[in-house]
Amino acid sequence: MQENKAGIFNRLDVVIIRVKDVKLIRDWYEQVLELKLAYFDENELMAVYKTGTDVSLTIWQIKPGGNIAPACLNGSFPIFYSDNIEEVHKLLKERNVIVEEVHGTEFFKYFGFFDPEGNRMEVCQYFK
After folding, report:
1. What's the whole-number mean pLDDT along residues 51-80?
2. Residue 2 reports pLDDT greater than 80
3. What residue spans of the chain are helical by DSSP H?
4. CA-to-CA distance for 84 and 82, rounded, in angstroms?
5. Which residue ranges form the domains of the chain, and what is each CATH number?
6. What is the pTM of this model?
7. How confident is the model at residue 70 (pLDDT cuts 50, 70, 90)?
8. Nearest of 118, 108, 96 to residue 33 by alpha carbon
9. Residue 110 in contact with residue 124, Cβ under 8 Å?
10. DSSP β-bridge partners for residue 111
11. Which are the contacts of 98, defined by CB distance < 8 A and separation ≥ 6?
12. What's the CA dihedral at 94, 96, 98, 104 to 10 degrees?
């Protein structure tokens, strides 16, 4: 029997961020975050991005009449890992991204940032 790597599941597959207009916001994810597009579905209006792991990040347009939950700290959001959090923080600020200050301890650091539609994301770095 194969060992379960994610509880009863094989693995985490995808993180989805719902957006109002996927065609407009794609440029931000590709240019500002430099994510590489793996797949775009014109019918479903979703863009799937590579993340350096088996888990993809998908921005998916909400259907007409649908609602996007308000962005808040109680919601789910992706957290990216960086070996140099200070450099990523500086780069995002230079690209006019709304970023929070870097917080943390001697063991880890993190900061939050937001896409143009207000979707929250974070970056973290761990220290040994």
Report:
1. 81
2. no
3. 22-27, 85-94
4. 5
5. 1-67 (3.10.180.10), 69-128 (3.10.180.10)
6. 0.81
7. low
8. 96
9. yes
10. 123
11. 113, 114
12. 0
